[in-house]
UniProtKB/TrEMBL annotation, chain A:
Name this polypeptide is given: Ribosome production factor 2 homolog
Keyword Nucleus attributed: yes
InterPro entries assigned to the protein according to its UniProt record, in alphabetical order: Brix, Rpf2
Cellular compartment(s): Nucleus, Nucleolus
Automatic annotation (TrEMBL), chain B:
Protein name per UniProt: Ribosome biogenesis regulatory protein
Ranges for region Disordered: 69-99, 144-174, 222-273, 287-343
Taxonomic lineage: Eukaryota, Viridiplantae, Streptophyta, Embryophyta, Tracheophyta
Example GO biological process: ribosomal large subunit biogenesis
Start-end of Basic and acidic residues biased regions: 157-174, 232-243
Natural source organism: Hibiscus trionum
GO cellular component: a single term: preribosome, large subunit precursor
Segments of skewed composition (Basic residues): 319-331
Family label: Belongs to the RRS1 family.
Biological function: Involved in ribosomal large subunit assembly.
Keywords: Nucleus, Ribosome biogenesis
Amino acid sequence: MMKIKTPRNGRVRRELEKRAPKLVETGKKTLILQGTKTSGILNGVLSEIYHLKKGGAVRFTRKNDNIRPFESGGETSLEFFSLKTDCSIFVYGSHSKKRPNNLVIGRMYDHHVYDLVEVGVENFKSIESFTYDKKMAPRVGSKPFIAFVGEGFENVDELKHLKEVLLDLLRGEVVENINLAGLDRAYVCTAISSNKVYLTHCALRLKKSGTVVPRMELVEVGLSMDLVVRRHRLPNEGLRKEAMRTAKDQPKKKIKNVSSDAIEGTIGKIYIPDQKVGDVALPNKAKGVKRERREAKKKEANERASKKHKEESE
Amino acid sequence: MAMEMEMEMEMESQKPFHVDVGNLLAFNPFRSFPSLPASRDELVKECLQEGTKLVQAVADSLFNLPSTEDVDGPLVKLPPPTSKLPREKHLPKPKPPTKWEEFAKKKGIQNRKKDKVVWDEQTGTWKRRFGYDRVNDDKDIPIIEAKMTDEPGVDPFAKRQDDKKKRVEKQEKNRLQNLKQAAKIGALPSHVQLAATSLPITGTQAPPKKVTKDELGNVAGMAATSTASGGKFDRKLPGEKPAKKQGKHRKFLPVVEGSGIGSREKEQTESVLNKLISKHSHEILNVGKAVTMYNVKKEKKARNKRNQEGKSSSATNKLKPKKQLQKKTGKKGPVSSKKVKAK
């Protein structure tokens, strides 16, 4: 026996529709959590990543000892959290003697683990340690420029994978229109050796130049750290093929009340509701101007005048 | 300045950065760091320099796109991103056509748009098509003419309501079937969930009774009394509360009591004997019980009569001694017979 359950609330219904799979996807939400042991540095890293991705990130602060991303059984908790919070990227931090300051960045497909990259954090500098002119600080949620430098990103397998994952993590929402005045941050990742990447976050200063294009100036503003690639797990071929599938562009949705003609071009229809002339409110309904009031006032004034007159005469 | 020019020329020969304007991404695959500069600051500076170049390249293409003026600043329409990234959820599958939709397509039935208000002949007003004050409501029909096909004794108004209920149930069933079909493909609409209700009732079995929390807590204690020591030495689970009535359930009679009519020990032994010795257990009438039942019935009758007539309570006193006499005879009967048998 099956029962049909539908939400009784409009709010719940809208939430469910937001989480439904879409044809064209905009931005993934990030889940930030930690393992049994974390170091001070790692805590700083996690909180700063959360701060940078404020709009689309969820931070869990409790320790989770049953999450081991690289083991076969240790992913169930992660998948459950991903399902509940609707997050498709996760950043899992843990600290141990063998792997100090460990960050596992992973992606999900349909709330199952798709791929993982494990990096170690070195030389971390937090936002507070940078001194800069506060006016230039990038605003929360602005779309960043992302720059990758280094041949390592092309040649080394692990770095290629890391590049893809970092792009997914750092880019914000995928939007069609962007306001050029709101561009104020950039991430620069340089591959300084075959397994090390230097990641830094900078604010942009647009300086006047002769042409339309302003001259860019980068000022280091936010976190900067060295990422040492430790392990990674690529997705299996079948899963990768399925995840990379894109829908062909659907035929454009028919816009209502618009039709196009060869002779006249685009024609639109506007429907105007009936005008109720009798019920329209009069514009200058100032109280003092109403005729009855005016007349009543006049009458009163006359009466008073006549009374005074009478008294005086008496 | 000259050095910078040289460097620029060198860079230009390897200019082709991979620029993805849709993602605001720029990638320079040609820069190599064969030897790391000595100090960290130098490294940082170099990286920033490279970064600036790349960002400049992206900005070049970005600011040259056609822009529209907006309140906050120039608005630019970004091209779609070129670097492919995996999706986070599967592609949505189109909803399969429902059974009605298939039928309509086959027959060529067009969907006609219906108005929200319909002219009602009976009252002469515009009424809703469905809802609160609707057009052909069942309760507004004053008279139903009898047809030849109508059975006598069937209420036509009730029949109309039943028919409507059946139609609604059928529609619900069809809707469920359509949704199940969609769920099988994987194209269930996002706001609908199919949940399994409780298991069906099989035959004459009643649906399993839900045990309350208190009952569940007592179950372990009840089972413990069947052990030899009454559950005293059973290993308890962490968090299990001690049983309500510990030890074996025994009732000890008072030490000193008269051996008269109300002697409980005598009753105890008699009942045990009755159960053990009797051969024709199906013939035995629990005389005591029968007598009590009879007496209670009689008392009730008399009470009712008394309530109707409004007599005093002296009648009850009259009944009591009678009862005792009868009991005495009842008890003596089987006991005496047994004594005879034993001998």
